[in-house]
Q: What sequence folds into this?
């Protein structure tokens, strides 16, 4: 090979970039996060409705679409002053992050943050809203 | 014709992924086996192609220059456009790789009344190319959040800058919009300009349609059809740690996106996309113009027997004398 030294350095850089995901994870325990639904209010609602899936919309929908729903809720509440949400199964909810969502999901650290940290997503909810006080007096 | 074939090929690939995942349930094949195979082909193919190019000798200096060569001390040299040393070449290569300096000089010829030919600067291709390549790079960097468990702060920073308009949720990325616009421009350009259309081949259209397909499927997945992103990262982290898992309930659009990317990776070493490695090996860019300073000798020159005048005279001295031709040695 002509100019072999330079080309091999270039190829080594290429190889480093192309295999970056493989060696950057060595030694880290990779585990899929499980958001916790273990709060008193959720348990109460589950008992009341007699099923596990009690959020405003079904679990599969919420997993993929909660950010879109929250965005629609924000626009509806703040820009159109409409605070009534009727879910797909006919239940009525007040559109409010702090009083509806966080009323049940009072465990932000075990619920919101688990997946958001895993995905390295930093939603800007709490720029405006007051983050709920964690149980046990943590902020 | 070649455009239709390329478009049909990409549509067929999309349908293949949909049929394979939705119809046959081959999530393991499309989620794990094909991506691994594609990456292996990409890496081995890329290395092999570069090594193959590296074995081609470049015995002489052939840089294309467009500035004053190093000359007398009172003549100002253009050190970047006509480099005589390594530093100038590095600057030239940097500008070429990061800002497509030679494309910046793109001209457009036009036949005007007269008939008179007129040339004017045409920066659209340069701008669209720059927008396309840079957004592609940013999108690639952003995707590292799916492949690195502890996402580096730099990746987070890129992502926050990219989404700082805070439109919608999930936040709209500026690069997504610019990327699709740039790819569309590069594609339409091939249809619109007759001369470019004439020289465009399937090998030009196919990567464009494929990349457009990747961009569209990604945008559809993020903003419209929605998938469970935690499940996606579960799969990608499985790939990155050689511990593959195929989570249930990932949308078909994800597999379409992944399959198109796998095809792009596998196709890469055999295509014109290899200019990413080739640009570093282009002798018209990466050589310094020092032909008048250093004597470059062809490395495979064999010793040539030279018949000097002295030897010639020795051979014919008597005959030359007889014919009255002057000789150097009596």
A:
């Amino acid at each position: 090979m002509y100019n072999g030294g330079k080309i091999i350095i270039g190829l080594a850089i290429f190889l480093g970039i192309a295999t970056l995901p493989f060696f950057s994870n060595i030694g880290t325990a990779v585990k899929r996060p499980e958001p916790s639904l273990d709060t008193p209010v959720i348990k109460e609602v589950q008992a009341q409705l007699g099923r596990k899936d009690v959020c405003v919309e079904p679990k599969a929908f919420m997993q993929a679409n909660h950010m879109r729903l929250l965005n629609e809720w924000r626009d509806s509440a703040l820009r159109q002053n409409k605070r009534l949400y009727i879910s797909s199964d006919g239940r009525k909810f007040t559109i409010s992050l702090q009083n509806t969502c966080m009323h049940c999901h009072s465990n932000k650290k075990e619920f919101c943050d688990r997946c958001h940290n895993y995905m390295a997503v930093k939603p800007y909810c709490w720029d405006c809203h007051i983050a709920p006080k964690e149980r046990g007096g943590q902020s | 014709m070649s455009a239709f074939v390329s478009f049909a090929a990409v549509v067929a690939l999309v349908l293949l992924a949909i049929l394979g995942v939705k119809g046959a349930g081959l999530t393991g094949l499309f989620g794990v086996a094909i991506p691994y195979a594609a990456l292996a082909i990409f890496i081995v193919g890329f290395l092999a192609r570069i090594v193959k190019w590296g074995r081609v000798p470049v015995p002489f200096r052939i840089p294309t220059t467009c500035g004053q060569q190093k000359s007398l001390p009172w003549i100002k040299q253009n050190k970047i456009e006509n480099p005589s040393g390594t530093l100038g070449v590095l600057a030239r290569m940097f500008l070429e790789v990061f800002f497509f300096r030679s494309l910046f000089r793109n001209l457009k010829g036009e036949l005007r009344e007269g008939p008179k030919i007129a040339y004017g600067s045409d920066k659209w291709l340069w701008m669209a190319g720059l927008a396309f390549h840079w957004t592609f790079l940013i999108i690639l960097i952003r995707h590292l959040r799916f492949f690195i468990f502890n996402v580096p702060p730099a990746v987070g920073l890129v992502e926050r800058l990219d989404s700082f308009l805070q439109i919608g949720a999930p936040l709209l990325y500026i690069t997504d919009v610019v990327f699709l616009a740039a790819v569309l421009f590069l594609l339409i350009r091939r249809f619109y300009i007759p001369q470019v259309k004439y020289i465009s081949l399937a090998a030009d259209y196919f990567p464009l349609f494929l990349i457009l397909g990747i961009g569209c499927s990604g945008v559809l997945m993020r903003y419209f059809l929605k998938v469970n992103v935690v499940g996606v990262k579960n799969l990608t982290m499985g790939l990155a740690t050689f511990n593959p898992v195929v989570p249930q309930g990932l949308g078909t659009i994800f597999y379409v996106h992944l399959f198109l990317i796998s095809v792009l990776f596998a196709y890469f070493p055999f295509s014109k996309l290899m200019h990413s490695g080739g640009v570093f090996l282009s002798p018209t860019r990466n050589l310094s113009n020092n032909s008048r300073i250093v004597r470059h000798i062809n490395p495979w020159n064999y010793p040539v027997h030279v018949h000097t005048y002295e030897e010639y005279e020795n051979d014919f001295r008597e005959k030359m004398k007889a014919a009255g031709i002057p000789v150097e040695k009596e």
Summary: The first helix of chain B runs from residue 2 to 23. DSSP finds 14 helices and two strands in chain B. Chain B has a mean pLDDT of 93.
